[in-house]
Amino acid sequence: MKLPSKLTKKHAIAGVIILALAFGFGGWKIFANGTEETGGTDETGGGEEVESPVFRHPLSGLQVSEDLSILPRVYAVMIDNSVDAWPPSGVDRAFLVIEAPVEASIPRFEAFFSADTDVEKIGPVRSARPYFIDWANEFDALYAHVGGSNAALDLIASTGTFDLNEFYNGVFFWRSSDRYAPHNTYTSTALLAAAVAKAEERGRAPETLYGTWKFIDDEKSEDGEKKGVTVQYNSALYSVHWEYDAETNAYLRSQGGREAKTADGTRLTANNIVVMVTDVAVLDSVGRRSVRTTGEGKAWLLQDGKTIEITWKKPSVSERLAFYDADGNQVAMGAGNTWIEVIPSEKDVSIN
Length: 352
Known about the structure:
CATH topology of the largest domain: YerB-like fold
CATH architecture of the largest domain: 3-Layer(bba) Sandwich
Organism: Candidatus Uhrbacteria bacterium RIFOXYB2_FULL_57_15
InterPro entries: DUF3048_C (IPR035328), DUF3048_N (IPR021416), YerB-like_sf (IPR023158)
Domain DUF3048: 59-199, 229-340
Distance between the termini: 32 Å
Pfam families: DUF3048, DUF3048_C
CATH class of the largest domain: Alpha Beta
Strand order of the largest sheet: 11-10-7-9-8-27-20-23-24-25
Protein name: DUF3048 domain-containing protein
Number of strands: 28
Number of domains: 3
């Protein structure tokens, strides 16, 4: 099922408002960017009035002061997660991070940033892989990377991906002198915005028409579950653990038995953790992977200290990845950021 575009939602909202004007506002509710708005009681004149509507950012679900008339541009950046690249920069500012295995089952990040977020340093930026391109294209995102596998570069060309390869666009990246290649390439949202502006001048920037998830405000766990999760990648060095922190109602990340932090010392946290199982196969002697991104499969959602089994679905490469409960209803994500851990087998996950 394809998530509705914002344009479709706005038409639906307009229709509801017209009906509300005709029949009175009492108790009406509508959805904007997956967010419920409700009406209240008028204290003057004996009628009913509409409470201030709740608007949410279409990417994070966080409350904003007004409805966004244009969907924000998305930047999808490939970020190194090998031990030689630790600690990363800017990952904590992404509204979504997808972690999936590359060669030798070492995990790599694809970090998604909203264009209205200011991040001064993002990286180290690494090379493209086909499955990460599929996830970027569902946002019509600017896909930033440094080179890539032959299959990935062919896919970029054949799909018309909004591409930013450092090999040909070095002005939008820089190389740090305190690290050695290939773990020393960085970018920023300001540079990525400049790349988009240049593409727009040439008429090469796609329109942003992505669908949006449903969102809810966070709610601390009261039932004592407060579960975490451990995900196995490659070896103990890359083993990922997320532990629920009741005080902040968020999940704290550790990797290789140590607290995971960014280069500026910020602890990596998430409001939602999804662990999704899909088909992963080794393609060649180098160890490059094939990862199935479309169709559906088993997954788990960790949210507000609770864990539920869900189903992930992505009908096509152009449609949003989304998550559904046992009754087939789309699961609402907690407002904030989401990390998705992609694994080949249920044996690689342990709910603690």
